[in-house]
Amino acid sequence: MNEPLMRLRGLIRKESLQILRDPSSIAIAFILPALLLLLFGYGVSLDARHVRLGLVVDAPSVAASSFTASFRQSPYFNPRDFANEPAAAQALAQRQIDGFLWLRSDFARKLSTGQSPPIGLYVNGIDANNARLIENYVQQSWAGWVARQAALAGVANPTPIAVEPRIWFNPAVRSRDYLVPGLIAVIMTLTGALLTALVVAREWERGTMEALMVTKVSMHEILASKIVPYFLLGMGGMVVSVLIAVFLFGVPLLGSLIVLGLASALFMLASLGMGLLISNVAKNQFVAGQIAIITTFLPAFILSGFIFDISSMPLPIRIITHIVAARYFVAILQTLFLAGTVWSVLLPNLAALLIMAVLFLGAARLTAHKRLD
Amino acid sequence: MFAMANMPAPPEPAATPLRLAGVTKRFRIAKREITALGDVHAETSPGLVTGLIGPDGAGKTTLMRLVAGLLSLDEGRIEVFGTDVSTEALKVQGMISYMPQRFGLYEDLTVQENLDLYADLNGVPQADRSASYTELLHMTGLAPFTSRLAGRLSGGMKQKLGLACTLIRPPRLLLLDEPTVGVDPVSRRELWQIVDHLVRQAGMSVLLSTAYLDEAERCDEVLLLHEGQLIGSGQPEAFTQTMAGRSFHAHAPGVPKRALQAVLTATPGVTDALIQGEAVRLVLDEGTTPETIQPPGVSGLALSPVAPRFEDRFVDLLRAQNGAKPRAALSPPPSGGSSTAMRAAIEVAHLTKRFGAFTAVDDISFTVKRGEIFGLLGANGAGKSTTFRMLCGLLPATGGQLKVDGYDLRRAAAAARGRLGYMAQKFSLYGDLSVLQNLHFFAAAYGLRGARRNERINWALSEFELAPFADATSRDLPLGFKQRLALACALMHEPDILFLDEPTSGVDPLARREFWQRINALAEGGVTVLVTTHFMDEAEYCDHLVIMAQGRILATGTSEALKHAARSSALPDPTMEDAFIALIHADSGQEQAA
């Protein structure tokens, strides 16, 4: 065996033994992902359920009862009746209800004459996300009711609105299905960047790096010995996450597994590059951890489109998202899981990941010196 | 480049292992430029142990790192066997092995796995390994522990494993950065035996740095560093020889040793006066004869010549550099606690501390008299610090009695703490605050107010000569001054009992002398001083000593008595370290017999 190979073997074996013996890297690589997945999979849902909706009907009528009944039967609403509008408004202000629907006295008349019936919807806008959901739901309920009324009345051509419930009001549209793939990107960032930055900083802290540097080992070898084991560890975490997503949460995986593997590998390399770059700057674990969280984990969480829609962000923020590798990976994951192998989406994002990986790994190599100053 | 490592270290007696020419290294720390090494010129000889001697902050580690190619030079040139480190670092790294101060052992790897890693890193062929492992494990005594995690080894064993790792591929030049710091005397002796063996048998060249001056005498040649300057180089014997006829033991009937030391220190013609056992060890200025030494107020002074030591020369060199002699000793604080003079200051009976299954302190008992300097001597991990923390009321004891100044620490820890001053081993003041702000803070923390506070702060500034530095940031003070400030803060509330944890480790000999003069003066004033140390030399300053190992007390007595017990025909004049090692051997012999 030639010397560089022997050195690399020694370093990789050392790194693997450390991973096996150190509970914290196992925790970051496997337990943290599982924990985050369970937390987000079960705990966080962007679906509105059991919305506390107030109902104010000024003049009871057959039409009004029929319309409100559609809310009473819905699993999404917990309706509550109010005698008049001020009572409902007060309840809304006290956050006893999330919103209320006001059917004015002329509801039945306007409906029968074909005019647009004046439905008032008042939603608590403090939780903007929830407010928008309620608004959507009520609109779709209304559209659904109108369509059903038309069908009952024997009208042959239902209004175009009647089509929409199939897209918007499909109970199968669970936020979990798009949160979980996005979450995998966040988890991979953790293993890739945070773990790598921490283990390299630990070597500086404990003085082991100083001893390594005086051997004939080259900087390439040191970097490679960090990349190989943590790449495998990260891909292992990835497999665990995908298995949890598919088999525990029942998220469909429609796209190609090979493309998934390729995209994950590219993203993992970009993350490792980030981690190594950070560790070249920060030589103690605390600082490395802080920098890794702020520059990789938080952006992956906030700026990747995983929870918050990028297209609705202000332009400067939107520009910033382009240097967040997780952004491309989230797009790939969501496409692969939910839409299938759609090359028009995948190719540009894969190309971007490739550029990111080359950039970060290159920068990590350029900033790594076999010197202490 | 790859062929290099497979070749055995070729004997090239003519080549100079290390050549330093005008080596200069500066660091920028927060806009201030510090010259870590200034224009150092030196050469070392092949096949010898070259000692790099100097206190902390002298530039030893910086020089080691420069030689290892880990730092870039600002000026000058370093050659290892004729190869320039700046341009061919990798080639140099193929010829040297370097053991940093905190050697990079992987604590979660076993002894064997650490060896395997360094064998891989150094390209040792598989076929050669088992022979090399056998020899190294035999030499270091680690053979029974190959499957133990490195983190579970004792301090001495870790150092030996570190050394073994650096020796897997025998280097032509071995760099050892303070290999013996904090290591127990037995392991220290074993480490030196390994180094000697390497040089004698394998013809290796070794550069070894140390802050322990007694180790200089074991080197073949030395480089003396002080504050980044090379202040001397040559054979240690030559250094010591220049001091011939200048070292004496002084006795004066009826004069206590500390008083004698204080008065001799201030006497003209005296370079150095140091308590050694019951006598005062004296070094005279060059050209001064013993007859001319006339300390005021002392009659019947008897001087008997003793062999010079390396430290004498170092102190002499530093005095020549610094010029100034230390001022007269610290005036004792007004309150001496004479009213309670008869009461023992500290009483410890059957004290035990367990952490889970591990017994850190195992049934120890001792009594410290008032106004005494009492030493707890032992290697790192002997249980000194744990005992100290219990005495300070910072850690509850598992069993036994503990009284400080008459207060039972189990019931009245706070009251007892009010009587104590404590100076931690590490600089534990606020580095960002100025000297004056630190004094203010500690005065306030001890509950001093108004005029009393100002009075104590002024006392501290004048007694410790800190006034010129009152507005300096504490972090930037030289080590000796930091230590003065720390002592001043510990004395702010005029405690009756002073606890010093490894007070002088790493400071230069002059600062250490000055520190002990202050401590002596405090003891003369009735303050009880309890000190922990792993410095065998420092034990000489103590009235009474307790020697600890593995949580137990091996021996109690004066330093003279302890040394006397170790006297034998083979060792007519044992040092404190000899005494310590004899005790450890006797103890392990008993254990085996039992």
TrEMBL record, chain A:
<feature type="transmembrane region" description="Helical">
    <location>
        <begin position="287"/>
        <end position="308"/>
    </location>
</feature>
<feature type="transmembrane region" description="Helical">
    <location>
        <begin position="257"/>
        <end position="281"/>
    </location>
</feature>
<keyword id="KW-0812">Transmembrane</keyword>
<dbReference type="InterPro" id="IPR047817">
    <property type="entry name" value="ABC2_TM_bact-type"/>
</dbReference>
<feature type="transmembrane region" description="Helical">
    <location>
        <begin position="350"/>
        <end position="368"/>
    </location>
</feature>
<protein>
    <submittedName>
        <fullName>ABC transporter</fullName>
    </submittedName>
</protein>
<keyword id="KW-0813">Transport</keyword>
<dbReference type="GO" id="GO:0005886">
    <property type="term" value="C:plasma membrane"/>
</dbReference>
<feature type="transmembrane region" description="Helical">
    <location>
        <begin position="178"/>
        <end position="201"/>
    </location>
</feature>
<feature type="transmembrane region" description="Helical">
    <location>
        <begin position="26"/>
        <end position="44"/>
    </location>
</feature>
<dbReference type="GO" id="GO:0140359">
    <property type="term" value="F:ABC-type transporter activity"/>
</dbReference>
<comment type="similarity">
    <text>Belongs to the ABC-2 integral membrane protein family.</text>
</comment>
<dbReference type="Pfam" id="PF12698">
    <property type="entry name" value="ABC2_membrane_3"/>
</dbReference>
<feature type="transmembrane region" description="Helical">
    <location>
        <begin position="320"/>
        <end position="344"/>
    </location>
</feature>
<dbReference type="InterPro" id="IPR051449">
    <property type="entry name" value="ABC-2_transporter_component"/>
</dbReference>
<keyword id="KW-1003">Cell membrane</keyword>
<dbReference type="InterPro" id="IPR013525">
    <property type="entry name" value="ABC2_TM"/>
</dbReference>
<keyword id="KW-1133">Transmembrane helix</keyword>
<keyword id="KW-0472">Membrane</keyword>
<feature type="domain" description="ABC transmembrane type-2">
    <location>
        <begin position="131"/>
        <end position="371"/>
    </location>
</feature>
<feature type="transmembrane region" description="Helical">
    <location>
        <begin position="227"/>
        <end position="250"/>
    </location>
</feature>
